[in-house]
Amino acid sequence: MPLPRSVGIRRTAVPAALGAALLLFAAACSSSGSTSTAAGGGGATPATKECSNIPAGPINVYNIVPLTGPTATSGELITSIAGVAAAYFNAHSSICGHQIAVHNLDDKGDPATSLGIARQLVNNGDTIVMQDSFGAAEDLIHPYLMQHQVLIVNGNGAYSLYNAKQNPYSFSVGPSNEEYAEVMVNWAKSHGYTNIGILNDGSSFGNELTGDVLTDIKTDGLKLVKVVTYSPTSVVLTTPVEQLRQAGAQTVFPDGFTDVLQIVQAIKQVGWSPHLVGWGNLAIFGVTQAQVPAGTVDSCDYRYTTGQPTSTLLTPENVALLKANEAKIGLNTQTGGIITAYNFLLVIKQAIETANSLDGAKLAAAVEQIKNLQLDIPGVQDSFSSSDHTGWPNGALKECTLKQGPYDILYGAS
């Protein structure tokens, strides 16, 4: 996301539940805690001839996220952005005349609860999921959803979750961990940054990203100083940061998703000014230029380049999405997450209209047929295949300075 960016959202943490016209549904899994919305312009019109197999009523899409418990903030953000995206979609588009209804199911961050929700969805015949929880809960239910041919479309960068062989019904609209790693290492090499130290939170995402980074470092002939793995529940990270400093690291890659603010604080506390190169996690947690060493960069999957008009990204559609998201969650580093989240719906729409079905296997086959689907990011088109389930085009991800633009969208670094 990563969420929002996930991500998206890697992706980046993302949100749901916009108040426009709310349409509530009595989901059979409401005992787990759920909200659902279908917003926009009026009721669904009859399905077209091309979509004759789509049943009447809204098309149900699900987020399984923690809405209560210690990790509820992440889930609330995802549900808020998803709701904004669905409301805009329903007001300006449709899937064969049908609206999208986003249902947000609370798994409390608990794997057992999450698995119970996943089983209810399968038993109810539901076939489309965007966010399938986080961390241990996601690791548990993702294989189950794959076993039962549930389509998953989000922005997660972890290859372990979207690789076509193991996860035939899972797709990522955003960049992959391999691409995050490549962009980070290429930046370091092109700017003469070496003596690299890596901070890894030990999560499956962090371990995978670190493995990709290590491969690229070796290929590019850069010097690796040390990899320090810390607990994702750590409150103070001065010790692992000091370990990198004492080892002689001059460049730091924070590869994990958690404790980013603690890393930034620890770097300042030990009086260190390394080259800090993120994969997008700095922006996700709202890190600003004033908090980090000079020259810090962070990967961004939506951007406009310094010296170019903001219209290269801020199209009328994107301005409307951003204003709607600002009204929902305020103007902050998460506001721009709506840009990525809206693309999930564009892929789902294309899949359903191609498949003329809500069958998960048929939907996955339809996504694999998508070529050069224009996203709401100008110049960026998603393409998939039977062997490649990440649609993000190579070269469309850049390292960005932490200079903020309108709606906190990052400028592309030169």
Structural description of this entry:
This protein is an alpha/beta fold. The protein has two domains: 1-175 and 307-393, 3-Layer(aba) Sandwich (Rossmann fold); 177-300, Rossmann fold. It is built from twelve helices and 18 strands. The chain has helices at residues 72-92, 111-124, 135-147, 159-162, 177-190, 204-220, 238-247, 260-269, 281-284, 316-329, 337-355, 360-368; strands spanning 2-4, 6-7, 34-37, 59-65, 100-106, 128-132, 151-154, 170-172, 196-200, 224-229, 251-254, 275-278, 297-300, 304-305, 373-374, 381-382, 398-404, 410-412. The chain has an eight-stranded mixed beta sheet, with helices on both faces. The chain has a six-stranded mixed beta sheet with strand order 3-5-4-6-7-8, sandwiched between helices. The protein has a two-stranded parallel sheet with strand order 1-2. The two termini are 24 Å apart. 55% of the residues are buried.
